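Dear Dr. H.,

I hope your travels went smoothly. While you were away I took the liberty of generating a structure for the chain from your last submission, since the lab meeting agenda had it listed for discussion. I wanted you to have the full record in hand beforehand rather than looking at slides cold. The sequence, exactly as received, is reproduced here:
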Amino acid sequence: MGKKINELDYEPIIDIINTKSCNDTGDLYQLSSKFYEIINVKVAFLLFLTYYILNTDIFIEKGLSKIFNNVYDFNNDKFTERGIILSGMILSICYILYDVLDSKNII
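The corresponding predicted structure, in token form, is as follows:
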């Protein structure tokens, strides 16, 4: 039927525990260099720029509100609910695009 508990291979779990031990983290410099190796800086930077552009007044008033209706409330000078959802969807699509381009080594 199945393997008994004592027959299971625990070697990968023990390796994970040993590599993620709290004793070998080092100082702040080593910790930040490990964090820098884990995150994808190119995608994070492009995502920040996209977020910055999506939330500028020029893009909202001149671009997004011309493409979609009821995105921006000019009387109260703020996004509507539809504008927030569309902006989030554009940001998500850009993240997917950046991730695919980075995985193919295009960017």
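Two observations you may find useful: The beta strands are 72-73, 78-79. The mean pLDDT is 79.

With kind regards,
E. W.
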